[in-house]
């Protein structure tokens, strides 16, 4: 069990007792809300923009959505290429099956919905119609992990655990707008099926300032350091970079190794970094502690006889609360103050 | 329409084709001592009509882009489709005895990666029609004249995904999609019509915007008429042919056996069934 604040589920159905003063209370963000940019510049709809750019030179690119094109930035592509966009209705099993059929006919379909629906409702269809036949369908899903305050119906906290067991499937969890743009182009070129987590709307740009270039299947050191090795994926790399900055003021030198491709995992880079002595290894992910990046790395390191001090920052194995995202990120340990406090407590 | 078919100009009757499909399926069942023979015997006339009347394909080039696609959603019917593919010259007859064996190209449940002519991996029921919707969209996008046929079972009508695909095909006016339902009223636990309210069948499809026909699925003349009507219907609707078939059709002592999803056939009965066919060769 993680050492987080007490389980909030006891609050449910009990009398309303606010945790914060009235002027500090936050409202549940709209489902379509963007992740808080946290002072960074943002770029609008990186997926849709990249797809439109790709479509200029690639006739095989088509888009599909299951009544969520507006909320996955697919509408940008749909507006620009209406004859290459297929509205499949509120039918995720069909969304996936039809994408498989289009891929069979030589197209490269990008199918979008929310991560909960792709992973929970359409799993068998992704497994059999796409992955088993190794078809080049790109499943790109919004609201990964804890990126909505709507509660478990919309919070895909276990999608990586679900999908990691699927052979042939490449899994990508990009950090920011720059990386979504680059990863969209990279997965379009990849000959097999891909599941990519998506941040949509106004998406913070994080890695652009590091001269970063996404490479499918490759982990990259964004910022090196001597005391702690943070290994992070998705937007938790943004948090890790901010945490590293905060730790520096306390004289702690933390490295951030970004792992955007969850599967296949870049074990060579991860092993090489984790094997360097004297650093606490901390994995960070926007996902349940069960079956995600942390456990994937822990298992590989143990099998490789690499055994550094090892900790994980992840969501608890619980049905998470509804509420405002900043509140929930604090509560579940994904915020920068929560990360720095825990890392300091482990040193 | 059939200028590229392997069978155009053939004098072999559809009855003889169906007979061959039944006989080959029985030989494969005999090898394994098991198999979904009840379904294979029941659907043989539908497959004969498909492969020797309706479909365009090239036996020596199963992936020819101009072919009509034939999706076997019901993976466990593979024994029947292998028999049809052998009769069509797409699979070699001398591999019959490998059916269901290690390293065979003919596994018990049909998979695309194993078998020439097997378009999709079926078996997880309720998948074929949705994939067919995507393929039909893709063929229209490529301005192809090819049809997509999806052969499914009555049991698959119970899967919600089937009805997602049914609505989508109508929404997108997929006139190049022909769904064939093998309605033998038999699923794993008993009669399909006692499991979910699948009846009335054709009115359901019509209400969903399809051109629907119901035919006796073991009547070759009726099948030919229905397939022709499905192909030539001038409207924009997707097309369905609901084929009422009899499990084990063509082998009377098996037809009379208590209906069962996995028909029991004793070791010596395979040869008896083949002997019955050999004594009743159609013209």
Automatic annotation (TrEMBL), chain A:
Residues 1-20 are annotated as: Disordered. SUPFAM superfamilies: Thiamin diphosphate-binding fold (THDP-binding), TK C-terminal domain-like. It comes from the Bacteria. One of its GO terms (molecular function) is 1-deoxy-D-xylulose-5-phosphate synthase activity. SMART domains: Transket_pyr. Its EC number is 2.2.1.7. Pfam families: Transket_pyr (PF02779), Transketolase_C (PF02780). Residues 41-206 form the Transketolase-like pyrimidine-binding domain. Its cofactor is thiamine diphosphate. The keyword Transferase applies. InterPro entries: PDH/Transketolase, THDP-binding, Transketo_C/PFOR_II, Transketolase-like_Pyr-bd, Transketolase_C. Belongs to the transketolase family. This is 1-deoxy-D-xylulose-5-phosphate synthase.
TrEMBL record, chain B:
One of its GO terms (molecular function) is transketolase activity. Its EC number is 2.2.1.1. It is an enzyme of class 2 (transferase). Residues 21-273 form the Transketolase N-terminal domain. CDD domains: TPP_TK. It comes from the Bacteria. Its cofactor is thiamine diphosphate. InterPro entries: THDP-binding (IPR029061), Transketolase_N (IPR005474). Keywords: Thiamine pyrophosphate, Transferase. Belongs to the transketolase family. This is Transketolase 2.
């Amino acid at each position: 069990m993680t050492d987080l604040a007490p389980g909030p589920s006891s609050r449910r159905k009990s009398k309303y007792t606010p945790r914060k003063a009235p002027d500090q209370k936050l409202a549940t963000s709209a489902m379509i809300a963007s992740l808080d940019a946290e002072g960074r510049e943002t770029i609008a709809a990186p997926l849709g923009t990249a797809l439109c750019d790709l479509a200029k030179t690639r006739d095989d690119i088509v888009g599909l959505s299951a009544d969520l094109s507006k909320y996955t930035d697919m509408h940008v592509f749909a507006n620009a290429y209406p004859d290459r966009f297929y509205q499949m209705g509120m039918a995720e099993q069909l969304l996936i099956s039809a994408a498989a059929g289009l891929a069979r006919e030589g197209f490269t379909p990008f199918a979008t919905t929310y991560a909960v629906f792709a992973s929970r409702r359409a799993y068998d269809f992704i497994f059999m119609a796409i992955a088993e036949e190794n078809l080049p369908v790109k499943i790109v899903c919004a609201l990964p992990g804890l990126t909505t305050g709507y509660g478990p119906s919309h919070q895909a906290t276990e999608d990586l655990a679900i999908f990691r067991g699927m052979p042939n499937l490449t899994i990508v969890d990009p950090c920011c707008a720059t990386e979504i743009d680059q990863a969209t182009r990279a997965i379009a070129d990849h000959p097999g099926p891909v599941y990519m987590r998506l941040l949509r709307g106004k998406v913070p740009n994080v890695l652009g300032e590091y001269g970063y270039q996404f490479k499918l299947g490759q982990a990259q050191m964004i910022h090196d350091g001597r005391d702690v090795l943070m290994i992070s994926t998705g937007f938790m790399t943004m948090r890790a970079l901010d945490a590293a900055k905060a730790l520096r003021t306390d004289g702690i030198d933390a490295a951030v190794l970004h792992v955007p491709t969850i599967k296949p995992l870049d074990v060579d880079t991860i092993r090489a970094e984790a094997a360097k002595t004297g650093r606490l290894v901390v994995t960070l992910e926007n996902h349940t502690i069960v079956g995600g990046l942390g456990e994937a790395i822990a298992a590989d390191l143990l099998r490789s006889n690499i055994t550094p001090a090892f900790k994980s920052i992840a969501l608890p194995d619980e049905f998470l609360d509804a509420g405002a995202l900043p509140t929930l990120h604090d509560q579940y340990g994904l915020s920068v103050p929560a990360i720095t406090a825990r890392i300091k407590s482990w040193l | 329409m059939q200028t590229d078919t392997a069978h155009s100009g053939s004098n072999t009757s559809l009855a003889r084709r169906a007979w061959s499909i039944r006989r080959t399926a029985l030989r494969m069942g005999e090898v394994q001592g098991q198999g979904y023979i009840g379904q294979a015997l029941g659907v043989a006339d539908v497959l004969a009509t498909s492969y020797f009347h309706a479909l365009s394909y090239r036996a020596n080039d199963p992936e020819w882009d101009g072919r009509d696609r034939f999706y076997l959603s019901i993976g466990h019917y593979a024994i029947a489709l292998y028999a049809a593919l052998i009769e069509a010259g797409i699979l070699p007859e001398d591999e019959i005895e490998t059916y269901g064996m290690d390293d065979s190209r003919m596994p018990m449940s049909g998979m695309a990666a194993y078998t020439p002519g097997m378009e999709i991996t079926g078996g997880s029921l309720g998948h074929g029609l949705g994939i067919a919707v995507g393929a039909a969209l893709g063929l229209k996008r490529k301005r192809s004249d090819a049809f997509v046929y999806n052969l499914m079972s009555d049991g698959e009508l119970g899967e919600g995904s089937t009805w997602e695909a049914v609505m989508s095909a109508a929404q997108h006016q997929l006139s190049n999609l022909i769904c064939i339902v093998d309605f033998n009223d038999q699923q794993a636990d008993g009669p399909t019509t006692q499991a979910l309210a699948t009846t009335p069948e054709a009115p359901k499809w019509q209400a969903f915007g399809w051109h629907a026909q119901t035919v006796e699925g073991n009547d070759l003349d009726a099948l030919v008429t229905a397939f022709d009507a499905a192909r030539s219907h001038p409207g924009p609707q997707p097309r369905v042919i609901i084929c009422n078939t009899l499990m084990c059709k063509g082998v009377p002592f098996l037809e009379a056996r208590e209906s069962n999803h996995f028909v029991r056939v004793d070791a010596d009965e395979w040869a008896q069934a083949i002997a019955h066919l050999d004594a009743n060769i159609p013209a």
